[in-house]
């Protein structure tokens, strides 16, 4: 169950990180409320996941999935750079997250 909590928490991290763009610096009420709700839910689920996983692993996986997901959605929806070096760095983050999941205990 901790890994499921962690995956949902990471998905919510992507939601709030991408949603920050729509808040216009937290000047728009409803987008800001949605981002804050996603942040709170993400943190709560991360805390639940940390009950059953080492905190270093949980946090690194949460951050890694959030960073990769946000970077990919930035490329797809906001025209962020998809240059080869950037994609290779995203691949390195994925490799690190996978290593923590499958090799770390």
Please name the defining characteristics of this protein.
single chain, mainly alpha, 105 residues
What does this structure look like?
By secondary structure, this protein is mainly α. The chain has helices at residues 2-23, 29-52, 55-78, 84-102. It is built from four helices and no strands. It is flat.
Summarize the structure.
By secondary structure, the chain is mostly helical. 85% of the residues lie in helices and 0% in strands.
Summarize the helices and strands and which ones pair or pack.
Blueprint: H1 2-23, H2 29-52, H3 55-78, H4 84-102
Parts with pLDDT < 50 across at least 5 consecutive residues: none
CA-based shape:
flat
Mean pLDDT: 95
- Measure the end-to-end span: 15 Å
* Count of helical stretches: 4
């Amino acid at each position: 169950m901790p890994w499921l909590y962690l995956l949902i928490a990471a998905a919510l991290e992507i939601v709030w990180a991408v949603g920050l763009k729509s808040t216009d610096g937290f000047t728009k009420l409803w987008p800001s409320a949605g981002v804050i709700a996603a942040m709170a839910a993400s943190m709560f689920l991360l805390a639940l996941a940390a009950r059953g996983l080492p905190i270093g692993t949980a946090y690194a996986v949460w951050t890694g999935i959030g960073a990769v997901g946000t970077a990919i959605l930035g490329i797809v929806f906001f025209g962020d750079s998809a240059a080869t070096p950037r994609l290779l760095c995203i691949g390195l983050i994925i490799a690190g997250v996978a290593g923590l999941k499958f090799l770390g205990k």
